[in-house]
Amino acid sequence: MLLRRALDAYLRHVTVERGLSAHTIGAYQRDLGGYLDWLTAQGIVETGEVTPAVIGQFFAERSTAEPPPASSSLARLQSSVRGWHRFLAREGIEIDDPSGRLRPPKAARRLPKALTIDQVERLLAAPSADEPVGIRDRALLELLYATGARVSEAIGLDVDDLAHGDVLRLRGKGSKERIVPIGSFAREAVDAYLTRVRPGLAAKGRASARLFLGARGAPLSRQSAWLVIRAAAESAQITAEVSPHTLRHSFATHLLQGGADVRVVQELLGHASVATTQIYTHVSVDTLRDIYATSHPRAR
């Protein structure tokens, strides 16, 4: 099969049958688009011409590129290529999977960065409570920290997802839904936004069920949400790096520091495996070390 036709078939599969998010599908398109461009440059136009040696050459060139790619980026690229070739073999488009012996690089295990509780409080207080946009921004920040939601999950919320009182419904990766509690501070901030700000924003644009709206009434974009977080960090004079995932990391870290069970945190974060959540448990070790140092008679 021609390379581009095979790629289109795979993208339809992951979109329709696997229900992956637009963000994940976009990553597949970029990774596999670059892979197909490289194959075409080698004179390969059909999937049957791809051999293990060809794939090995591709990744050998990628791994020695300048500047060198991050191990996480290379691992994701390998995952995309393996997924595509497995699909072609499984669907009978090709007899064999030439990527079967491909092994992902060992990614460096980076500890997630979290803010201190004091930094979080300064961040949440940064938006102005006297301006409509500030009220919206505070509601967004409070909700992110109160629920551990991904930014994409927060901006994907509909107003009806808050109809359950002290819990809300989040749609995570692969359209999987989970119910998470929302604390009183976040609930009050969101209620203030719903009653005082959202009606005015909604009147400026087409009718939208989305909870968070932009200045023109359209659903708030991922980029706009990132700008809200960055502006709040600057206003709060937080010098630590603050990314769209920072409040999610802080949510998990502070729960574990407070004694929450790792499996409860797993459910709240929407992780498929507890192994993903356990990367946060290093903070509990720090807490235990401090308690030991101050409590044990022979610790010092």
The average pLDDT is 86
Q: What is the helix content?
A: 55-70%
Strand neighbour order, sheet with most strands = 1-2
Element-level helix/strand string? HHHHHHHEEHHHHHHH
User: How many alpha or pi helices?
Assistant: 14
Low-confidence stretches: none
The largest sheet, given as strand count, sense and whether it forms a barrel, is:
2 strands, antiparallel
Number of distinct beta strands: 2
- Rg computed from alpha carbons, rounded to a whole number of angstroms: 23 Å
Question: What's the multimeric state?
Answer: single chain
Structural class of the helix and strand makeup?
mainly alpha
Topology, element by element:
Blueprint: H1 3-17, H2 22-41, H3 52-63, H4 71-90, H5 117-125, H6 132-147, H7 151-155, E1 167-171, E2 177-181, H8 184-196, H9 198-202, H10 222-235, H11 246-257, H12 262-269, H13 274-277, H14 282-295
Helix pairs in contact: 1-2, 2-4, 5-6, 5-10, 6-8, 6-11
Please characterize this protein's 3D structure.
The protein has 300 residues and is mainly α. 56% of the residues lie in helices and 3% in strands. The chain is built from 14 helices and 2 strands. Strand 1 and strand 2 form a beta hairpin. Helix 5 runs antiparallel to helix 6, helix 5 packs across helix 10 and helix 6 crosses helix 11. The protein starts with a helix and ends in a 5-residue tail after the last helix. The mean pLDDT is 86.
